[in-house]
Write a structure and sequence with these properties.
Four copies of one chain form a homotetramer.
Chain A lengths: L1 H35 L6 H7 L4 H7 L3 H25 L4 H18 L1 H4 L11 H28 L7 H13 L1 H4 L8 H13 L4
Helix pairs in contact in A: 1-2, 1-4, 4-5, 4-7, 5-7, 5-10, 7-8
Chain B binds a DNA duplex (21 and 21 nucleotides) through α3.
Chain lengths: 204, 204, 204, 204
Amino acid sequence: MCIRLEKEIAMSLRKKKTMKKRREMLRSAAKVVSQKGYDRATMDDIASELLMTKGALYYYFDCKEELIYQCHELILSEALKVMEEIVLMDLSPVEKLEKAIITHIGFAINEKDILNLILKPEQTFEEDHLRLILEKRQQYDSIFDRIIMEGLNKGVFTSSEPKLVRMMILGAMNWIQTWYSPHGKQSPEVIAKIYAESLLKLLL
Amino acid sequence: MCIRLEKEIAMSLRKKKTMKKRREMLRSAAKVVSQKGYDRATMDDIASELLMTKGALYYYFDCKEELIYQCHELILSEALKVMEEIVLMDLSPVEKLEKAIITHIGFAINEKDILNLILKPEQTFEEDHLRLILEKRQQYDSIFDRIIMEGLNKGVFTSSEPKLVRMMILGAMNWIQTWYSPHGKQSPEVIAKIYAESLLKLLL
Amino acid sequence: MCIRLEKEIAMSLRKKKTMKKRREMLRSAAKVVSQKGYDRATMDDIASELLMTKGALYYYFDCKEELIYQCHELILSEALKVMEEIVLMDLSPVEKLEKAIITHIGFAINEKDILNLILKPEQTFEEDHLRLILEKRQQYDSIFDRIIMEGLNKGVFTSSEPKLVRMMILGAMNWIQTWYSPHGKQSPEVIAKIYAESLLKLLL
Amino acid sequence: MCIRLEKEIAMSLRKKKTMKKRREMLRSAAKVVSQKGYDRATMDDIASELLMTKGALYYYFDCKEELIYQCHELILSEALKVMEEIVLMDLSPVEKLEKAIITHIGFAINEKDILNLILKPEQTFEEDHLRLILEKRQQYDSIFDRIIMEGLNKGVFTSSEPKLVRMMILGAMNWIQTWYSPHGKQSPEVIAKIYAESLLKLLL
DNA sequence: CATGAATGAGGGTTCATTCAT
DNA sequence: GATGAATGAACCCTCATTCAT
């Protein structure tokens, strides 16, 4: 019994370790891929960023696409969870949208490496992975829709085209990746604030 | 003399033909590349879209990068010219910005194939081409800055962060490529109108 | 009759012109090929050295190999003719060999562009051309053999291995191409003299 | 500790194996290239001579030029080492030069495949490799200069142009590659002896 | 689990050659 | 005779993937 317990604990420890390792690998992979682009980042690049050999990577992931898909999955799920918490908070729609915008921009900047991957999944993924990714993106986007609808229903937002406005907001935010540099004069937090304040005008 | 003249005319005719052909090739190349992505679109793909052989492509362009660079150059120059005309028109800043937004969205949708290429040039182009592209993009962006500044000076626009607002506007517009489909319910023109109207709010 | 005559003269003039042109082309081709090597010199390189287009070259020569073969043929025939004159001169074997060495070195240096081509014809020419070239080289080499034999018969030369000595002499001379530079301190004539004097020792 | 030791031994064994393989590859590559010439020998040719695939070659060498450069490096270094031993032997200059000539001809004939590559490195190698090769050749040549100078100083050799004589000797020897065939009537050793004996006359 | 080695299917590029005009 | 354009066969090189050890 005691031995069994130890084993179980050991297992769960090992599993945790493995999970942690996988996550590390995903982060590193995402970093390389977001810098070079999917097609230009080779498995060797990714492996050496991890101080591993290519062969080892294939122990953890079946193929390149799978590896990168897992990256998406990881970060999108994380982001989605945070966003869903925001929706359920006891806040006004205005406050929720502000929070959502600030949070999203935080991801876009801090997790630039990973979120970067999201542009044009059609050019990267095959059927199966693609469907899953598009679904999750859909879920993510709908978070914003829900907040906006809530605001419209409560009469604090105004818009005849809420879907288009949601896309304007997302587009404006995602574009930040394009020009943001940590050496710029404004901190990510300041940028996020300004964006939140400004973009809210689209709904007033 | 007469013969000489004929020759010259013939020359200029041939040159015109060649120019026209080059332009056609650029359009087709842009189409393929915008669909598959730079790295996945092979020179064979591009050539067969043109009902040509790969070798023929290399008669006109030194290498793949050069070919795609010329695509950028072509469309960016065109767009820039149109935008510069707008700046010089005898219109109010509000009207100018509306026109600029509508025009830009027109490009983003109709020339999707080409403008699409603009995302992340760093991952595609080497030093020299990259610098030229970034310069031209800069010029393009500054058109919007000029209109915005004009509005601020005349007191019709208000913003403490005009640069960030300009980037929100561009981001919102460029994102359209991401989701626009000709089968959607709204026509490009309607979309453009709605965007123009909404985005102006960011400056009021 | 008179017209006919004119025509004939004209013909012969044209032919001469054509011949001259061919020779010019061969010289230029040889120059390019000797600098870059057969495989690295493209037909475009050769054509542009001649201020022509590639197509024009093909009017005069069937293919690249043919063109280069003609180069060999031209220079080898020339050299052979000069050498044969030397053999027939009314000179002592020593004087003949001196003259032959000096003449050969003159070719090796001044016609470097063309003689250069002679190394390793096996790697360049197909069956037919190769046989013709090897034959002519054989003829050329045998000139030296004849002079040496004459010297041996007259008792002014001594060697138990005349063939090997002939090859030493040719090797020593042809190697000059490898290091000769017009900017060196010794003139071609001086070099030739020294070589003639020294190499004769091999037969004394 | 024991495990560690085993590992280290294994490492060194594997490394040795790898080194040996590399050397084999260089020999085969040299063979193919010396037969077909650098530009005509394809990587496929070289690979199939080794019963390998092209890809495997690229696992060991960065590019074709590097592969062939390593061939040069290998054989030149070997030859240079042997020659340097000769210079340092306790022999008379005449005996040293004889030995050097015989040794060089041994290389020229037996390692024909590799030494063959030395003609015209300018047409094959880029800047960096070229410089290294020319340097090493220089070193090699200077071995002969040193022996000759020693002989001149001791009064056993006579020459007003020792540099030119050195080049005659090298040229005569290297030319052997051009005509030597294992089916000829004279053995390499006999040829080497005759050359040594004859070429010494140039310095007496 | 991990590594070094190898494979094989392309992809970009070059170039001799051809041909309509 | 000459030109611009086009072809197609190779060639060098890359890289995701596999596998014996």
